[in-house]
Amino acid sequence: MEELTDTYFLSGIEILNDLVSIPNDAQDQDQLWPNLKWCEEAFKDRGWQTQKLATKGFPILLAERPVADAIKTVLFYFHIDGQPVDHRLWNQENPYEAVLKMNKGDGWLEIPMDTLQLAYNPEWRIFGRSVSDDKGPLAMFLTAWDALRASEQWPNYNLKIILDFEEEIGSPNLPEAVFDHRKLLAADMMLIMDGPRHVSNQPTLTFGARGIAEITLTTYGPAVPQHSGHYGNYAPNPALRLAQLLGSMKDETGRVIIPGFYDGISLTKKEQEILKSVPDDESEINRKLGIAEPDRVGISYQESIQYPSLNIRGMASGWVGKEARTIVPAEAIAEIDVRLVPESDPERLFQLIREHISSQGYFLLDSAPTRKERLTHPKLIQWQGNIAYQAFRTSFDSEPGLWLNKAYHRAFGMDPIKIRIGGGSIPISPFVDALGLPAVSVVTVNPDNNQHSPNENLRLGNFKEGIKTILAILTETL
Predict the structure, then answer these.
(1) How far apart (Å, rounded) are the C-alpha atoms in residues 12 and 5?
(2) Edge-to-edge strand order for the sheet containing 49-53?
(3) Mean pLDDT of 200-219
(4) Closest C-alpha to 98, from 466, 463, 444, 455
(5) Nearest to 391 by CA among 313, 312, 311, 308
(6) What pLDDT, on the 0 to 100 scale, is given for residue 170?
(7) How many CB atoms lie within 10 A of CB 210?
(8) What is the pTM of this model?
(9) How confident is the model at residue 425 (pLDDT cuts 50, 70, 90)?
(10) In the prediction, which pLDDT does 423 show?
(11) S-S: 261 plus which of 97, 256, 278, 321, CB 3.0-4.6 Å?
């Protein structure tokens, strides 16, 4: 594997740079079509069968490679779309033109890409949108496949690959599409090729991901903003009321105090040992976050993400700074995300939150209040809720878990770090639910890759080890 990885490393860099050069803002379908075409041609050129699967939005692409006499089928998932870019915040002229950089201690220095023809340093990085999330892993896979094809080695199982082009907007059309095309997508297990390694950057497998639901709350004061001198002690302030309401949902340690919110979650001694086995340095995590101490939902970082969260991701009311005005605002808005775990029914959590809001004296609305409602109910709040996708979790002792552990041990001479459930959310639960598949995330990119942010990057050592990881998986007998 080592020799094949080294031999095909440079051709893999070419694949990555070519794919990154295609803009891929998930919000812009005109950008997504060239990406789909590139992927279609890349797989066809390698002897794979491809077909576009219709959704209510942008299509997904299915690539298949049957293997003679194979009994099992493995379904791989990648997404090709990316987050938008603000060119002003990138330290390069074009985020869609991959550049090679080395760390000079006081910053990153760009060096010519063709330097790699003569030299290699695992700490050098390639910068560009989606180099890590998620075009890098696809380039790793295609490189590994090219290496196997040249050496005439083949997996002993059938391969299917699903390429998602709407992941960065929550894959809103994926659940229905998976159900509609479930016969075409049928497999024995699913490998999710997305996400960073553990913060230590050691080889890692992640066996689950939290789901996500979203809530927007709007409280109301006077029908239009009012002069705070005339009405400051008279007209109720919606910003204050919203702050008080949100404050009533958690205690000072960050734990949700809405009765029943954490019901159903009980960690066994074995599960607690699994969480303790992850080599987190929490003092280092705190240092990077710039916090003196964390919330205490769990006794450790790993335990904290075993529970559903209730996170205020943004608030707005009135004006601030140079635009500040001495007014009582007309309304206040809070956006909340709820990270889900397998034990949490999101509909039940929504009901608990709604009941709590009602218990605080609020009349719940599903749209802006009418004049009659304003004059009838002292405390008004508009609720908008959306369940994006559910959580999933696969056992370490499942067939893919045991099989992948063998592949990693063969590649790296040791077992990988195993994460019980990741804190983030990926739209995989439709596959797990509709197809009944056990799923595991094969994470390869460096944890400090700036995904979704300016100056997204991929460490060369991770790119090379990613190719090696996929080679080990493709050659591990199933």
Answers:
(1) 9
(2) 49-53, 60-65, 158-164, 73-79, 189-192, 439-443, 204-206, 417-419
(3) 96
(4) 455
(5) 308
(6) 85
(7) 26
(8) 0.90
(9) confident
(10) 87
(11) 256
